[in-house]
Amino acid sequence: MKVVFLGTSGSIPTAERNLPAIALRMDRELLLFDCAEGTQRQMVRAGVSPMRLKAVFLTHFHGDHFLGLSGLVQTLALMNRTDELEVYGPPGTGELVEKFLGLGYYKLTFKVQAHDMEPGGKLRREGYTIKTCEVEHSVQGLAYAVVEDPRPGKFYPEKAIALGVETGPDFSRLRSGQSIEFASGQVVKPEQVMGLPRPGRKIVYAGDSRPCEQVVELAQDADLLIHDCSFANELLDKAIESGHSTPWEAAEIAKKAKVKQLVLTHISPRYADDSLLLEEARQIFQNVVVARDMMELEVQRED
Ligand SMILES: [Zn+2]
Ligand SMILES: [Zn+2]
Predict the structure, then answer these.
(1) Proximal ligand: closest to the CA of 209
(2) 34 is annotated as an active-site residue
(3) Distance from the alpha carbon of residue 40 to the mean position of ligand 1, in angstroms
(4) Which ligand does the CA of 20 lie closest to?
(5) Alpha helices in the chain (DSSP H)
(6) 143 CA from centroid of ligand 2 (Å)
(7) Distance (Å, whole) CA 91 – CA 221
(8) What is the tens place of the pLDDT at every residue in 103-125?
(9) Cα 242 to averaged position of ligand 1 atoms, centre (Å)
(10) What is the per-residue pLDDT across 11-25, written as a single tens digit (0 to 9) for each?
(11) How far apart are CA 164 and CA 143, in angstroms?
């Protein structure tokens, strides 16, 4: 699972930061979370092919999070895309997609399938599940968790050999969860030679939000939490008023949810130097970075 930060500014773009969009490369699929204006150019810069994009997940309908979708769809039509594109978002997504598909003159060459997602909703996909929760912002918004399916436990060949299993096809059978039966009638079960199932990787993107319990729950034990950090601690009033978070608040969420790593994003244009945000967050949670455009993060499988 590789995360590419395509836009990390909040509300207004700057020379260094574009507006929110995050690409996520899964084993078999390319996903996009939020799609601000200019996202398609950021994809070109990052070497992320929009033609390979399978689905777009929108957190909410403030312009800085979705206005790039219209342009992206029209570019894909110019490139003669034929594969369906899925778009998910909070209630109202279907209506919104309908509207922007009707903008301007172009010929749509593929199907755009829009789906409204309810807070608390789940979406099964091949090898992983998308889960959502409602965030606390000035308009309705969703946070998304991408949760990979658990993997079978670790295989211990020495245990299999000790039970009389020979290397070869029988090893593969045990690994894939099947029991082996010898001519003598003796049976070797996978659980005798394998460890406990290993949880899959988990990435959570909270979108624009005040700190909230739902996100703590959604992000529990995540490998990576990407959280709003629009304002430094001294501008808490402004954060409360506009429905955003400060470094202490984002770090507190990461700590409570026991995530492995925190990435701060949606940085207000006032912070040309983001070191203050990082310092403040570190006072509460150590493994934290401030996202920058084009930053890439690989979330590795643990053995
Ligand atoms: Zn925003
Ligand atoms: Zn917003």
Answers:
(1) 2
(2) no
(3) 18
(4) 1
(5) 39-46, 63-66, 69-78, 93-101, 157-162, 169-175, 190-193, 213-218, 236-242, 247-257, 275-282
(6) 12
(7) 28
(8) 999 999 999 999 999 999 999 99
(9) 10
(10) 999 999 999 999 999
(11) 50
